[in-house]
Amino acid sequence: MARGKLPIFDRRAEDGRLMGYQVKIRKPGFPSISRQFDRKADAERFAIDTLRDMNSGTWVDRREAERTSLLEALERYEREVTPAKKSAESERHVIARWKRHALASRSLASLRPGDFAGFRDARLSEGKSPNTVRIELALVSHLFRKAIREWGMGLTANPLANIDKPKLPGGRTRRLIRDADPKKDEQARLFNACEESRSRHLLPVVKLALETAMRRGELVGLRWGDIDLAGRVARLIDTKNGDSRDVPLSPAAVEILNGLPRSIDGRVFALDGKTLEHTFRRAVAKAGLDDFTFHDLRHEATSRLVESGRFTVVEVAAITGHKSMQMLKRYTHPRATDLAAKLAAPAPGTAPAAKRGRPKKAVVGDVVAMPVRGEHG
Length: 377
Hints:
CATH superfamily of the largest domain: Intergrase catalytic core
Distance between the termini: 105 Å
Order of helices and strands: EEEHHHHHHHHHEEEHHHHHHEE
CATH class of the largest domain: Mainly Alpha
Helix content: 40-55%
Number of domains: 3
CATH topology of the largest domain: hpI Integrase, Chain A
CATH architecture of the largest domain: Orthogonal Bundle
Largest sheet: 3 strands, antiparallel
Strand order of the largest sheet: 1-2-3
Strand content: 5-15%
Shape: elongated
């Protein structure tokens, strides 16, 4: 039986027991809507909100979002969106983790900001890094944007849009220590360990990384057809940010490349990204370097370009491929000792500062000219 003016009906068992409530909305110009609720208050709220939105012209058909679980949406995202990404392989692992989570069984329409804030806090409490959690949240946030804009799910808001993302730690400041003492010189120790590696390409790829500031993926993707040794330029077709880039080659970089044999398949280095990473880690361990990653070579190379003083910041960004000055700043870490030495050195084109003392007399012929206080000539 309907309750007042709201289309709410009792749901009863055959023996007459009250089992819940059902909302049945039949309004001209709108699809029929039927929803079941355990609590009368929930049924009334749904009926009031739906009729109000229909009367005001703001009603949106959310039935597709109510029928579609996050799991089903993830599967669609994996089929339609992930394959076009460069990070497709790693993203599939992120999707697999989401599929195993309890939220995956919920409908898209039922998910709220608090659900994802709880997910964030739980993952951080498990010891996951802030960046890992940000990547997980970013994937589902993009899924909701797709559902809103392209999939016709009837959603009007992204529940992840305004939740706080885990704060990332500051950029890494790990630098290679160079020293006259071979035992303290980390670069020398790293080169020696790479030279002793079973991979004949490890040492040249590490040296080239330090000369060019190329990323790991850019290095392993190099092909001889994209390198102009005479013009000293390497053309990167497929970079991380999607743009091609011409990388100038130093004389040392040209020497490294000239020393490599040519392969039939046209690749400069017979290594893939994972193999290079694992081989490099073994060399780092053998060299006794603490907390040093392959990507730190890019940090080091970029910092050396800045410290050389030969390039403007814009020129450095053109070499390294950084999109913004803020990103470039994260990758450049001048040593405080180097900056202190610059502060102590005289500015270019100036003489060292004279020692303080009494002003010297200026002698012109037999006349002795004494400087007058306050006189500036």
